[in-house]
Request: fold
Amino acid sequence: MRSARLVQTPERALLVGVHLPARYHSTSTDRLAELELLARSAGAEVVGRVEQRRDRPDPATLIGRGKLEELHREAAARDARLILFDHNLSPTQLRNLTREGERRVLDRTALILDIFARRARSREGQLQVELAQLNYWLPRLTGRGVELSRLGGGIGTRGPGETKLETDRRRIRHRLTRIRGELETVRRRRSLQRRARQAAGLATVALVGYTNAGKSTLFNALTRAEVGVSQKLFATLDPTVRALALPSGRRALLSDTVGFIRDLPPGLVAAFHATLEEVQEAALILHVSDFSSSRQAEEDEEVVKVLAELGVEPTARLHVFNKIDRLGEEERRRLRNSPRALFLSALAGLGLEELRQRIDGWLPGDRPVRVVLRFAPAQARQRALVHQWGRVLSEQFRDGSVCIEAELPESLARQLQEFAVSS
Ligand SMILES: Nc1nc2c(ncn2[C@@H]2O[C@H](COP(=O)(O)OP(=O)(O)OP(=O)(O)O)[C@@H](O)[C@H]2O)c(=O)[nH]1
Ligand SMILES: [Mg+2]
Reply:
């Protein structure tokens, strides 16, 4: 079963925001702008906004009855097939807001899930998204509002009666159990890979930041790799790890991660926990901010909050302010780097050398050393480590064994000391 895609492309969508007193979760112009970005990331075309000011949310429909009428009139007038709420809707609200046979209603969580479903590439990412989607839809399977066919091939397509509903629920629960099992297996494999990298003694530097901050662009600029860079949000769902060459000649690993976003549904936080495992083990965190964003402070706060939740030490962090190419000449001249902060542009290639040097200066030891090692045929694993993490200068086969001259990170050289030959 594939993860569900809820938004067809391109689909005309109407945004709905509700302004409420501070003690409630409230919409703002900024939030609607973000919802619009999310909608576009999901492939929808935003054709209008409906907003309402209220003293408190209506438990049955969130917005007032009169507003609901207006909403459907507006949607009909603009030919919108999709209604997107900035608020998260309870199962009851979702049911009451949806009118059978008409347009679809999605809340922010469903929209984010949809984007995640489009972007997930690795098996683990896909499983995590499907898990979150099934958990989200399980309590919302009420026969109205949710098109079951969208939850995968196996599940029925027509509006279900109560019995059908029970079957669907049972199938979903069954599927949930299977996904959890498979995820366990995938995670174990990943943790083995991670341990292999650690055994090679290379430090990991992790890029974290709000979605759209420019992490993948920076990742590409630093590693010259082609990781999908996209104007759409959440372009990266699976952590990508590549070798990073530093000015001193040593190497580290650079890890690109999924972007953070405020009010990430709790189910998703848990589901994407694994994509942030690299972050927890990183020697250095590069917190990337979009310096040109009007919401930068708020976005930073969100990132800092999540890092604290993950138990990441504030000491191992360097704050990178990206997109300074968008500033005026005068503004740019006034920027001052500090030991904890660096201004740059990943796209325009400004300040990248300084960043490399900072990373270099930060990481412990591990300068490259030159060694000559001799391996017996049975020691293929150790030999592979040399090829993977070192720079091989020469390799000769003699009397059944292999003699390699190479530059290795100091830590790996120490680890392979027993194979060293004095030359
Ligand atoms: N002007 C400018 N744009 C940039 C810069 N860096 C990135 N961008 C743009 O910002 C957008 C987002 O870039 P990404 O690198 O995909 O951002 P990300 O942080 O990886 O986003 P997610 O993976 O969604 O979390 C793209 O349109 C980039 O071209 C920069 O230095 N200057
Ligand atoms: Mg990215």
In short: The chain has three domains: 11-118, 201-362, 368-419. Residues 215-216, 235-236 surround magnesium ion (ligand 2) (CB under 6 Å). The two ends are 59 Å apart (CA to CA). DSSP finds 14 helices and 13 strands in the chain.
